[in-house]
Amino acid sequence: MAPSKLETISFTAFSNIIDGQLRGSKGHYHGIDPTTKQANWDVPIATADDVEDAVAAANRAHAEWKASTWEYRTERIARFKDAWEAYEEELTNLLLKETGKPRQFGSAEIKSASQFIEWHVGLKEPKGETYDFPDKKIDHKFVPLGVAAAICPWNFPLLLSLGKVLPAVQMGNAIIVKPSPFTPYTALKMVEIANRVFPPGLVQALGGDDKLGPALVDHPDIHKISFTGSIATGKKVMAAAAKTVKRVTLEMGGNDPAIVLPDADIAKAAPMVAMGAFFNTSQVCIASKRIYVHSSQYEAFLEALINVAKTLKVGTPDEEGVMLGPIQNSMQYEKVKGFFRDAQDQGYKFALGAGQVPETQGYFIHPTIIDNPPDDSLIVTEEPFGPIVPVQKYDDIDEAIRRANNSRAGLGATVFGKDPQLLQRVADQLEAGSVWINSYPAAGPQAQFGGVKESGIGTEFGTMGILAYANVKAVTTFKG
Ligand code: NAD
């Protein structure tokens, strides 16, 4: 049966969602359509009173929701899926407007949101272990934390917000979503749709200025922060959360290596590496940001990679054959241009592209490849989060692993080759939260996702993502 639209939702008017109501504000901000640099719709800036009201409503909602069963909450999530699917077309168009992504990928993202929801509908309630001794029985129970705040980035504004809402409510928590000020639109509408099926106050959204994130992290009646964003901001969140001993999940930046082993099939690996490096115009936390290729096939691989990268058409969402959209915002655009300038100033060899980024009507940058820059170059040590990637030569595999691990980040990694044992050995030795073998990096609801080292604390998704929203309580009952 085709899903029905429960109530009309406007996709051209945007509000915060507090205690089941749409709420405006005196102050406004707006995102930019990055394909044109034109302003998108106004969005209210949440005030300090809005924060207080939302936190109070969330605690009220949690008090009831935590007493519901897993089955009841999961059934509500299934209803949310139906409500969600009724708006897929509108949400796709909105996502394209706020991010400039090519339609095929924006549309796939909206569809994958449904798959995320479906995964949660199928999840079993996690149960703690029970130990039965002659004198006592110990039960471990997972109990919800209370109220969570989701602090979200702009690169996948919808999926990364949804990926926090689902486990939070399924585990019995309330959640307040704070979208990135660059991309508030789809996240606000996701929460509006969620309010068609969840009780008032359970899933809320507050958008605003630079004061809002810190206000949520500092608030004593918020019990958990699930943050996705840069390493620099994540460190601030962690430090501030210490004041109230808030639980934190931190999903932060990466500087992911891709290792092309000596026996890799270049024709297969090059398109995968190109996709890993340039998908979403490289604005992906798990994008391949350092590419290590064995010296025996360095030149051939580089040529193959250039040939694939050249075919990646850059343009607006509905242009025929477009593969890459713009950089999402001007701040990031300027930051990425800094990597181009540095590579030019240092005299590195541009295997594809040039040091000058031509001005266009949007924040467009074409895929660019730097040929074998030194290990201490900016393009190797830092995360550009834009379509400029270094390819480096190595002579032996242990050296490649050592160089790949020589980073304070440890989010993801990819490795390409034929020998299954060698692939596993390399995967095991890479210091990363996720490793993909013979594929571009692709996160999804089934696999645990999180970083090691400075890339994060805790994981999302998978089955353990649920437990990021639970405390464990040990109840020991003495017998006789
Ligand atoms: P960012 O750190 O600038 O912002 C992230 C969020 O934090 C935004 O909502 C922002 O408003 C908020 N914020 C800013 N200052 C804050 C403070 N002091 N306290 C609380 N909240 C604050 O990150 P971004 O530019 O939006 O996203 C890009 C970065 O995110 C990249 O480094 C990327 O690698 C990383 N990222 C990581 C993952 C992951 O899962 N590990 C996924 C996507 C993006």
From TrEMBL:
Catalyzed reactions per annotation: an aldehyde + NAD(+) + H2O = a carboxylate + NADH + 2 H(+)
GO molecular function, one term: aldehyde dehydrogenase (NAD+) activity
PROSITE patterns: ALDEHYDE_DEHYDR_GLU
Entry keywords, A to Z: Oxidoreductase
Residue positions of the active site: 251
EC number(s) reported in the record: 1.2.1.3
Residue span(s) of domain Aldehyde dehydrogenase: 27-475
InterPro entries: Ald_DH/histidinol_DH, Ald_DH_C, Ald_DH_CS_GLU, Ald_DH_N, Aldehyde_DH_dom, LUC3-like
UniProt family annotation: Belongs to the aldehyde dehydrogenase family.
Name the UniProt record assigns to this protein: aldehyde dehydrogenase (NAD(+))
Organism the protein comes from: Capronia epimyces CBS 606.96
